[in-house]
Amino acid sequence: MIFTDGSSHNGLVGAAAVLFIDHNHITTLRHHLGKATEHTVFEAEAVGLLLAAHLLTQRREVTFAAMIFADNQAAIQSSSHPTAKPGHYLLIHFRKLMKRLQNKKNVDCEALSLNWIAGHADILGNELADREAKLAASSPTNATLRHLLPKILCKPLPESISAAKQDHNAKLQNRWLSIWKQSPRYDHMATIDPSSPSKAFTKLTKYLGKKQSSIYVQLRTGHVPLNKHLYRFKCSDTPLCLQCNDERPESVHHFLFECPRYDRERHILRTKIGQKALSLQCLLADSRAQRALFVYINETKRLKATFGEIPLPPEKPG
Amino acid sequence: MLYAASVWIKPLFSGDSNAPLRGSQGVTRKMTQAQRTAALVITGAMKTSPTDSLEIHANLLPMPLLLQHLLHNAALRLASRPQSHPLHAIVKRVAKRNVKCHKTALHYLFHGLRINPEKIETISPHPIHPTSLTLFITDIASSKEEAIVDFQTAQVAR
After folding, report:
1. What is the pTM of this model?
2. How far is residue B38's CA from residue B54's CA, in Å, rounded to a whole number?
3. HEC assignment per residue over B75-133
4. Which of A96, A313, B49, B79 is the most buried (most CB within 10 A)?
5. Is the ipTM of this complex over 0.95?
6. Cβ neighbours of B147 in A, within 8 Å
7. How many domains in chain B?
8. Given this structure, which CATH class describes domain A2-160?
9. Is residue B27 part of a domain?
């Protein structure tokens, strides 16, 4: 019985295979792959399988039945049919080793099996393999000596395409954030949704119709048919709010929180979602405040000329 | 719109710096306008809304970054071709040494993005023979519990 595992730990990747015969731990092979920006966990699992095959070819028993246990379903599935995908060259090599094993020891294919075992299920062998893989990942000095490893692992493995893509995408996201931070809109948007750029807004409007998500975007950007914005583009004669006598510019903030004309509607809003109704972050970024917000906008009738009656989302979205 | 972008766009950033490189800035600006139109339709915002907040709301990568992303993917794809591929030798030669004038799209791609094809894995288009035999039995239990039960029975059988 052999247990294999690959793991990524503190930005480093390693793999291990542990051999058990009759419940006794016999040997362990460990291999350190390198940085997580150059290698994936999938590759580590494949290297684990390679190590397992190597352990089997080294045994002197004349006849045997071997079971390999790995806790990664993707690696097991693709090991029987490697395709033109990143990391699969390791699985092809694994198959070569297995074939050599069959020819050399004259073992039937029925005697060799590759099984999935659930990870973190308190199974001694799997837990041990997991620990050894983490140990191998932590430093190249913890790896087994080279002459005990299969030939392909003696040289450093080539970099993985998928790891390079992942690394590049993470860098692009960071770059986007730093560009966004220089935008004059950043400060305002950060008070509403500090996580942006992210999928948060897409998630928020996932179950909403066009009208509803459109209102969200307009209120969040401040580009909304209220007098303060319309005046900037000469679409309105005054930036002031015509609904009340406060002589205040009719901004999003005024519309949502201040205008005394809508006090009654605002009171309903506040009874529904509590004190949080006073923060932009809750009103415009929280899915729980969604329904109450649309009720408020419908009741005030201020945006009716543009949007008409806004359909309400169901009580519990999703 | 972005078909074969790696041929007619030069890398827009180099390394980790945010300073834009010369070469394809004008085209990128035009493409940004096109993406903005799409973002307006997606979000339903007013047409006066600033492009960057539209991109944030529609979760669309800004054009320069999107192009850089496409270029990087294309470069990696070229770098991982096997020896039998017609472009393999050309890519290898181009990536080895940069030239001062008469640069090709490949020169810009590999030297702008600093990708070394020698270090990248090779992906074979036909990894195994279609008629190759089964070498071992693979077994994936349908659930976690079943996997543990299977393991225990195998252990007892030993």
Report:
1. 0.88
2. 10
3. HHHHHCCCCCCCCHHHHHHHHHCCCCCCCCHHHHHHHHHCCCHHHECCCCCCCCCCCCC
4. B79
5. no
6. 115-118, 121
7. 1
8. alpha beta
9. yes
